[in-house]
């Protein structure tokens, strides 16, 4: 950004000029004048101040700029004094570095907008290139790579010469290449080398850098850049397939999580439970309550809030499920239409109850630190929350499967759903098993709510958005078969994600619905149909 | 067969007799009731349940609050105001039914209501047929000017276009993603914006338009697409007309994939203080919103309003937002118009409203225009950690609302003028009333 650079030089000159004209002896100096500009609460003044402070070479420059980035720089609009509150709470006068006891009452944090934040980042990049911490050096080099500001070249060359850390060295080389690529007076050889370095990096930022190259480069360089762009593009196209597959898995895991409880209540028990989504919502609200308690009483436990919420959500939603089964559904077995209407009415009642208790607006559920952010795998970004949800879903699935297979309750459940009268004759309390099965399905929906609170709104309508998808998955996978639900969820997720880039989100969804309808015409019992006598029962 | 017929007749007449008696009794009761306490009834038509309850419940409370304040001042024309609240339950046809009920059964003098454009379109014929007044407080896509409706929210030239101007001038944005929920407001707004951007020399390949269903929650592909689109070496911004609920997962995904406001800023037209109140603002910091009002704006009128509102709701954390301010202005204008003509007769009030001025909460005076839109200032705010906005830019003065967009071929010659031309879609080229719309 040459314009920005000129701007800074102008700012420095202006500052020098100002000091020369007014020549206030003690406070004078371009640095002090620049600092005072932070107090003007004007974005263009702040911009000038950032440029002047960053290029001043004053040891206070780094603390001032980093304080500005973190909102710890405050200014008194009346006295024009500017203060840095250290991360340890100590306050110093930004112009002199002298310690100050406390901030004046009318001091307010210096405001930033996006343009200024970029200027701050670029300035900090320049200031931290020589930081002793390699991670900081890498981050600084990357921000130089993005801004490719010429002024940083000398420092980069210097740093590159003494760099020993491998990662930092690579980052510096790339940053140097980025600068050379945009430097008008760099030689053709230098530029060609730079293109090769950037090409080797091969990601979207490299491509942005190459495509941003203007027409006034030597023809050889332009050709090299064009071929580098094509090679990066084909590489990225391959990665985008991988990316779609990952997104599909991730969407599939969300579908599975939402549907797995329904696979029990609808799939195994045959109850058309329209209030299933509301169990998910109750799980999400349980997470909210847990986080509220933790926030007010035990803030240190925040990272564990989800672990605490999982069993609680299971218990709360499960208990409500048992109540629903005992209170309503047991009177309606074998009457699907009435069950449908009753549970649908119930879903409205539950929604309105939550709306009355917690208000109609969304509730804030925060992401614990281990659920936020992402990491790069090759050229794709994998976000932690999606990864954890995938793992969590598979864990829930395995536990549920094991429970049905190996526990006494699981055995009883299977017995009752396969042949109720026989099971009763063998001494199984079928009505108790019904209640527990329904409670289990609801409890798992509650657990799903904990996970979904991390990626969706926690509002009374949360469940509604999942109920149709859940039924779709269960019906598609084959009613009464957990493996069918698993395969169905992932198939739908992946199909959806491969359709979405081509058809758009709206048409993609419609296409999926049409496909399912056609599929159900062909195979009315879904992917994995149950065989044998259980089907007839 | 014959017995059946006689049976029918007798039941019918019996029913009719019953109905007549009931009507008489009710009528008498209503009459005596009206005598006992003469009030002016104000209809409130906002969803209190269903998907839109999240936004509309607050507006219902706002109208009740305004009525309460007005009654403390002695009401209007010496009569107390009485609110009639109905719940159209986010169900668009029910909006029309409830509107009819308010006007014919409850005999309200004015209705404050609606949020989505589809609900407004659904009640329009009712207000026209029964000749009543609707104040509509939400930013919308424009392309409409009706005699019975007063639009106190922003038209596209009072929100979308200034926001794009800001990004173009201040952030030097060259590439644009227009992302929206798939319904009439985003589609029309994006059509207007696309035409506007092209008129400013933006090429087709630098515009990406994307629609998603209501309540979309899986944004991975779209955010990755935006990232890819933004890596073409030109400054990119997202103009979001994404509807309330889908916003949270959208911003979360942006944050998780590492797209910061400094890289690709998002300017939203439907994210306000109320929507931010329920979410973790970490991933949203620095993203933008364009509105005609922000709670954080320092102005004595605003501070007084916030204080009174929080006292009324008994919640010191209750936030205020742009559509609320629109109701404040609209309510004030209606009161002034009624007092001016000393009557609540719809025809008289409708004729009196254009030209009426009311103080807005940001230090200016808004005026009702002949096209039934009002003048408003436009602010761009950045989202702060506390869920409030920091104003980074504003228009130098108030902007007059255009009923018909000047950017679209179909509407650039149309104006709404209910004072001189008595027409909502007057064609200035052919000098004829008619064409699109009514």
TrEMBL record, chain B:
Q: Which InterPro entries does UniProt cross-reference here? A: ABC_urea-bd_UrtA, Peripla_BP_I, TAT_signal
Cross-referenced PROSITE patterns, in alphabetical order? TAT
Q: Which PANTHER family match?
A: ALIPHATIC AMIDASE EXPRESSION-REGULATING PROTEIN, PTHR47628
Protein name in UniProt: Urea transport system substrate-binding protein
Q: Which NCBIfam families match?
A: urea_ABC_UrtA
Source organism's superkingdom?
A: Bacteria
| Pfam families associated with the record | Peripla_BP_5 (PF13433)
């Amino acid at each position: 950004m040459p314009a920005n650079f000129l701007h800074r030089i102008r700012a420095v000159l202006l500052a020098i000029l100002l000091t020369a004209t007014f020549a206030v002896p003690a406070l004078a100096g371009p640095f002090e004048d620049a600092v005072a500009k932070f107090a003007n609460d004007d974005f263009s003044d702040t911009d000038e101040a950032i440029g002047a402070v960053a290029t001043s070479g004053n040891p206070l420059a780094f603390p001032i700029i980093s304080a500005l980035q973190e909102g710890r720089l405050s200014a008194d609009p009346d006295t024009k004094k500017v203060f840095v509150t250290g991360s340890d709470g100590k306050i110093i006068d930004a112009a002199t570095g002298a310690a100050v006891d406390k901030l004046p009452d009318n001091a307010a944090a210096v405001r930033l907008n996006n343009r200024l934040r970029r200027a701050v980042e670029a300035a900090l990049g320049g200031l931290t290139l020589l930081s002793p911490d390699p991670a900081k050096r890498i981050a600084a080099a990357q921000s130089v790579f993005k801004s490719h500001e010429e002024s940083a070249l000398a420092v980069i060359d210097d740093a590159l010469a003494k760099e020993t850390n491998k990662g930092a060295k690579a980052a510096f080389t790339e940053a140097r290449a980025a600068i050379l690529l945009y430097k008008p007076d760099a030689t053709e050889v230098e530029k060609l080398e730079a293109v090769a370095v950037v090409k080797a990096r091969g990601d979207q930022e490299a491509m942005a850098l190459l495509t941003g190259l203007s027409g006034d480069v030597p023809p050889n360089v332009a050709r090299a850049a064009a071929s580098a762009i094509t090679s990066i593009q084909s590489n990225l196209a391959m990665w985008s397939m991988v990316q779609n597959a990952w997104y599909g898995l991730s969407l599939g895991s969300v579908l599975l999580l939402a549907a797995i409880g329904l696979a029990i209540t609808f799939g195994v028990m045959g109850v058309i439970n329209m209030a299933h989504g509301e169990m998910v919502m109750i799980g999400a609200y349980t997470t909210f309550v847990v986080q509220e308690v933790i926030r007010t009483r035990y803030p240190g436990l925040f990272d564990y809030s989800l672990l605490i919420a999982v069993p609680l959500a299971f218990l709360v939603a499960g208990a409500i499920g048992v109540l629903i089964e005992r209170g309503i559904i047991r009177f309606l077995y074998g009457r699907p239409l009435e069950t449908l209407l009753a549970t649908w009415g119930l879903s409205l009642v539950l929604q309105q109850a939550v709306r009355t208790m917690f208000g109609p607006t969304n509730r804030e559920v925060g992401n614990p630190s281990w659920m936020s952010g992402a990491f790069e795998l090759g050229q794709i970004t994998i976000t932690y929350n999606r990864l954890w949800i995938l793992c969590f879903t598979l864990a829930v699935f395995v536990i549920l499967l094991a429970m049905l297979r190996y526990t006494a309750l699981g055995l009883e459940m299977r017995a009752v759903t396969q042949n109720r009268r026989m099971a009763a004759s063998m001494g199984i309390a079928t009505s108790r098993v019904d209640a527990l099965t329904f409670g289990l399905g609801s409890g798992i929906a509650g657990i799903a709510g904990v996970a979904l609170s991390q990626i969706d709104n926690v509002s009374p309508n949360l469940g509604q958005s999942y109920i149709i998808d859940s039924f779709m998955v269960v019906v598609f996978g084959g009613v009464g078969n957990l493996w069918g639900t698993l395969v169905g969820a992932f198939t739908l997720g992946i199909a959806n994600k491969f359709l979405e880039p081509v058809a758009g989100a709206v048409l993609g969804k419609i296409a999926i619905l049409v496909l399912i309808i056609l599929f159900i015409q062909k195979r009315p019992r879904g992917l994995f149909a149950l065989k044998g006598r259980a089907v007839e029962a | 067969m014959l017995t059946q017929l006689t049976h029918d007749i007798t039941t019918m007449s019996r029913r009719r007799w019953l109905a007549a008696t009931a009507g008489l009794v009710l009528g008498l009761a209503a009459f005596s009731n009206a005598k006992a306490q003469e009030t002016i009834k104000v209809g409130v038509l906002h969803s209190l349940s269903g998907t839109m309850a999240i936004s509309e419940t607050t507006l219902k409370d706002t109208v009740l609050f305004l009525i309460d304040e007005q009654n403390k001042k002695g009401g209007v024309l010496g009569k107390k105001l009485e609110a009639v609240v109905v719940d159209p339950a986010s169900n668009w046809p029910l909006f029309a039914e409830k509107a009819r009920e308010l006007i014919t059964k409850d005999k309200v003098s004015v209705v404050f209501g609606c949020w989505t454009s589809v609900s407004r379109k659904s009640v329009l014929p009712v207000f026209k047929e029964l000749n009543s007044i609707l104040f509509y407080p939400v930013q919308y896509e424009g392309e409409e000017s009706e005699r019975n409706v007063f639009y106190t929210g922003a038209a596209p030239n009072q929100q979308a276009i200034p926001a794009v101007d800001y990004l173009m001038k201040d952030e030097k944005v060259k590439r644009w993603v227009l992302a929206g929920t798939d319904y009439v407001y985003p589609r029309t707004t994006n059509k207007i914006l696309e035409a506007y951007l092209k008129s400013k020399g933006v090429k087709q390949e630098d515009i990406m338009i994307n629609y998603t269903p209501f309540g979309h929650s899986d944004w991975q592909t779209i955010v990755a697409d935006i990232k890819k689109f933004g890596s073409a070496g030109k400054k990119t911004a997202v103009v979001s007309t994404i509807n309330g609920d889908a916003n949270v997962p959208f911003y979360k995904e942006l944050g998780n994939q590492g797209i910061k406001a400094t890289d690709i800023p998002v300017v939203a037209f439907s994210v306000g203080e109320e929507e931010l109140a329920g979410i973790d603002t970490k991933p949203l910091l620095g993203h933008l919103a364009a509105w005609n009002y922000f709670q954080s704006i320092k102005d004595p009128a605003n501070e007084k309003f916030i204080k009174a509102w929080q006292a009324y709701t008994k919640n010191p954390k209750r936030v205020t937002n742009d559509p609320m301010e629109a109701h404040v202005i609209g309510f004030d204008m209606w009161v002034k118009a009624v007092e001016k003509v000393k009557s609540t007769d719809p025809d008289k009030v409708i004729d009196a409203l254009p030209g009426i001025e009311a103080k807005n909460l940001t230090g200016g005076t808004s005026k009702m225009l002949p096209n039934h839109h009002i003048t408003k200032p436009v602010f761009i705010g950045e989202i702060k950690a506390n869920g409030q906005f920091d104003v980074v830019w504003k228009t130098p003065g108030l902007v007059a609302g255009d009923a018909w967009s000047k950017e679209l071929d179909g509407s650039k010659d149309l104006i709404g003028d209910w004072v001189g031309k008595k027409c909502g879609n007057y064609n200035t080229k052919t000098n004829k009333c008619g064409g699109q719309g009514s």
